[in-house]
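Hello again, I could really use a second opinion on something today. Take your time with it, there's no hurry, and the full record follows here:

___
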Amino acid sequence: MALIIGLFDQLFRERLNTRLLGGAEEPIYIPAGLTTAGAGLSSVEPYHRLYFRHDYLSSALHESAHWCIAGAQRRAQLDFGYWYSPDGRSTEQQQLFEQAEIRPQALEWMFSVACGQRFRVSADNLDSGQGASRDFVQAIVGQAQSWCTGDSLPPRGRLFIEALGNQFDCPEPLSQDHYQLEAVA
């Protein structure tokens, strides 16, 4: 975990005043200078904080993916200004969740490949008793493959993938061979 945090800091701490931090009960992004009294976190910091859950690698990679995708306006808002419906979502809410999660989960998968870790698609709706929809999984695969062949991969995401690949000896983390339906289905 220290290697992942160290790489993130090396790439983004000075350049974009952002730190990746573990140990949170729930993941959250807090822009610099924003007060968070009552959240169990230090109230104001001069840098942006990207907290992941406890010491979970998948949470660190997932939150990093959200941050790498978010534009400047989103990065100025608490938790990127995203809505979140807790476990027990309706079918309609779950469809909205899945639509919003295609790009972050595709990028998380690419980070996972680059550091040699297994990736699992998350429906994040345990109370429903259902996993991720087939369409959601296929959309994640399609997005990852598209980023491998095109130039639309978010620049911060590309930097992090390359750094992870170098650190963890993954010579071609952007090879489409890694991103097949069988790998996540």
